[in-house]
Design a protein that fits this description.
alpha+beta, four-stranded mixed β-sheet, 28% helix, 28% strand
């Protein structure tokens, strides 16, 4: 490992840097982590994230100074196997799961991860969302098979947590390049309205209000209600809705909303939550593209790591997180994307400006997966 390390300042995009460092094998030094803050250094959820990376890799070296404001990370080999991790309740399981989804195909052994903590919160993509959008996206890149699934065994709402999620993923030697340029028209809308430790009627009220908006556009709508009881309902009350719009070409666009955590902010009516979530979904459909805004960076990462062939994907407007991710991909893998802005045609009325992203894969191969 004679490769030159990279140095960054600040705690922003912390996950991106460590994930790309682990995949590229380049070491990273992150300085000035909240050094001006009253409470300087790494937060608990970031420390928990480092511990998770340590569990799925072998030989990773991590050094953190006493105040926690400087982190040195030298990645080891992605080992995988069966792990169990208590995710910090400051962030949801989605925060940790997103990273595992990015790393899982390149492990030495198929990953089987049991993550415990908050399954749905307002900051990160929920487990329902990743299950409905990230999994079909992985299949497009040739990561499929029996072993790929996200299973929610227990729900846990913020702030208490207590949820459980099982993520299993097979390993792949290479990632196949993709051509996702035609999103297609929306053919149906699916969703899950869930409620824990509140009246089961809440979920039905959410469904009715979301349908009141979406029925104006499309008849094929089915929203499941999921009311978990007893030990499976975690430690805090709450409810929420995840909506998925599926197109004719198998593209999934998603939106979600969660009630305010117990004791924080004012209570939100399930009717308002359902209506707002439906509007967020319509906004996402307006943005369009072949990958929704929550999974843009995952798609771009898989394109970067694909075989040495051209990959094309049509995305909606890039989110700020994705833009920063592209800069990091350039730092770690020296891969630049060709970015073409596509204006929607007047007669078609296809929503917002689209961006066509093109790149040639880095030809990344999973070194631990030998040719049988």
């Amino acid at each position: 490992m004679a490769s030159q390390g990279l140095t960054y300042d600040g705690c922003n995009f912390f996950r991106q840097r460590l994930i790309l460092s682990t995949l590229s094998g380049k070491r990273v030094k992150i300085r000035h982590v909240r050094s001006k803050d009253d409470n300087p250094g790494l937060r608990d959820f970031e420390a928990s994230f480092i511990r998770l990376l340590d569990k799925v890799t072998n030989g990773t070296r991590i050094e953190i100074n006493q105040t926690g404001t400087v982190l040195f990370y030298q990645p080891g080999l992605l080992f995988g196997g069966t792990i169990e991790h208590e995710c910090n309740v400051q962030r949801s399981v989605g925060y940790y799961l997103e990273a595992l989804i990015m790393l899982a195909p390149f492990m030495k052994n198929p990953l089987r991860a049991l993550l415990k903590g908050v399954t749905n919160d307002q900051k990160d993509p929920s487990v329902d969302l990743l299950k409905a959008t990230a999994i079909p996206l992985m299949k497009k890149f040739g990561i499929d098979g029996d072993g790929l699934e996200i299973k929610i065994t227990k729900r846990g709402m913020a702030p208490g947590g207590g949820g459980e999620v099982l993520f299993t993923c097979p390993v792949r030697r290479t990632i196949r390049p993709v051509q996702m340029t035609e999103p297609g028209k929306i053919k149906r809308i699916r969703g899950t309205a869930y409620s824990v430790r509140v009246s089961p009627q809440m979920a039905n009220r959410i469904v009715d209000s979301a349908r009141s908006i979406l029925n104006q556009f499309i008849p094929d709508i089915y929203i499941y209600t999921d009311h978990m009881k007893g030990a499976n309902s975690g430690k805090s009350p709450g409810f929420g809705l995840t909506l998925i719009a599926e197109t004719l070409n198998g593209t999934f666009l998603s939106a979600e909303m969660v009630s305010n955590p117990q004791g924080q902010g004012e209570t939100i009516l399930p009717e308002d939550l359902g209506r707002k979530c439906a509007k967020i979904l319509l906004e996402e459909v307006y943005r369009g593209g072949c990958v929704d805004s929550a999974n843009q960076s995952l798609a771009l990462l898989y394109m970067t790591l694909g075989q040495q062939d051209v990959s094309k994907t049509l995305l909606g407007p890039l989110s700020p997180y994705t833009i920063e991710f592209l800069r990091h991909i350039r730092d770690f893998f020296q891969i630049m994307f060709k970015i073409e802005v596509k204006k929607p045609n007047e007669e078609e009325m296809k929503g917002g400006n689209k961006v066509l992203m093109t790149c040639v894969g880095a030809g990344y191969t999973n070194i631990s997966k030998t040719l049988k």
